[in-house]
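Predict structure. Input: DUF4398 domain-containing protein, 235 residues.
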Amino acid sequence: MAHRFSPLPGFGWCRTVQVAGALPLLAVLLVLGGCASVPPPDAAMNQAQAGLQAARQAGAADYDPVDLGFAQDKFQQAQTAMSNRKFGPAADLAAESSADSSLARTKAMLGAARAQIQLKLQANTRQRAQNEQAKAENAQHEAQQRAQLAQQQAATQVGPDGQPASASSTAAPANPASTGLPAQAPMQQDMPAPSAATLASPTQQGGNGFQTVPDAGQSAGNPASSSSTNTGGQP
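Output follows.
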């Protein structure tokens, strides 16, 4: 003989209540399991830290301190999330920090390039000014040398009496051969006239007194008179 067991009254309702109460607990466990399945963003954190270092080395503290400050703040927040095991927010914050540090590094490099260009422009301006000054000094020195040379030439042209030498005295005589003209014969100077003392004093010969010069006819016609004259009138 077979027996049938019927469920107790109210037993099905109790079982439904137990299953419904376990659902929230299951949901909490699933959420916790999902959070635990996200790995720690170690690579993102390392990349963010390296980006900060590169931005500082590029001079972001001088050329772009604002973006560098944003990157540092995001990295600190990512570290806080890592310590609280909030790996998802930590990864997002690390990525934002990397982007800000990259922007700061780029702006720093541009600022450094502009500074180098400005320094070169200033150096070129100084060099140009030095060149202009050197040219002016050279021109002044040349002017002084020309003035000294002119003074020396003027001093050499002054005569013995302190007056400027005339052109006829300073100019050299022209060479006839160079001018193409025939050479002129040298001019003969006149004989000087005898002095009055020479004309007044008679010629003395042998202490015999004044001797006259006989005429040409007298010398030819009367030679004896010449001898008588030489004897001084004695026979």
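The mean pLDDT is 73.
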